[in-house]
Amino acid sequence: MVRRRGQTTSSERGQALVEFALALPVLLLLLFGLVEFGLAFNAAVSVNFVSRAAALLAAEGGRAEGTDCQVLRAIEQDLTSPATPTRISRVEIYWSDANGDQIASNVNVYTRTGSLTCTYASGSITVPYTLGTENYPETERCDVLAGCGGLHTSVDDVGVRITYTHQWVTYVGKTIAGSITFQRSTAARMEPTL
Asked: pLDDT digit string (tens) for 89-128?
C-alpha cells in the first residue's frame, strides 16, 4: 500500500489520542500548580508589604494613644486582592530588638474577631479585632532619645507580625483543596521625639 505524504491511518490517530489522554492530566496539574503558586506568592508579598507599612506607622505613632488602632485600620485598608483582610487571624505589635526579634513577652496580640473601638484626641476608630494579650501598652513604649527608664535605654524598635491563612483556589470534588498559614513581620525604629 502506498501512502501519500501527510496522510495518517486510523491506528496513528488512535495512538495520538491515547498519548494526549496520558499527557493532559500532567499538563493540567502543572497549569493549576502554577496558578496556585502565583496566587499564594502574591498573597505573601501583599502581607509582607502591609506588615512593613504597619510597622512604619507604629514607629511614627510611638506612644501616642490610638496608635495600635490606626495600625490595625491601615492593615485592613492596605491589603489588596487576591489577599483579603478576612483571612488575617491575628496581628501582633511587639517590642523588637535591632534584628526584628521580639523582646521577651512584650507584645499586644489582636485576633480578628469582634470589634475594638479606640478613642483618641481627634476622634475614634472601630476595627474588627479583639485585644487578647496586652504586654506592650502604647503608654510604655519609648520614643524619647534620652530613654524612658526601666529596660528602655533608648528609643524602642516596634514590630508588627501578621498571621495570614491563604485558601487554595483549586477544588477537589466539592471542597477546597486546603490552606497554608504564614506569618510576615517587620520592625522599625520609633521616630524619636525631640
From this structure: 999 999 999 999 999 999 999 999 999 998 877 789 999 9
DSSP 8-class letter at 62: T
Whole-model pTM over 0.90: no
What are 137-161's pLDDT values in tens digits?
A: 999 999 888 788 888 888 999 999 9
Number of domains observed in the structure of the chain: 1
Decide if 64 is inside a domain: yes
CA 18 to each of CA 7, 22, 28, 86: distance values in angstroms, whole numbers, following the listed order: 19, 6, 16, 45
In a domain, 4, yes or no: no
What are the beta bridge partners of residue 117? 126
The domain in which residue 97 lies consists of 10-189
* 99 grid coordinates: 534584628
CA 89 to CA 164: how far, in whole Å?
6
Answer whether residue 175 is part of any domain: yes
Look at residue 5 and tell me if it is in a domain. Answer: no
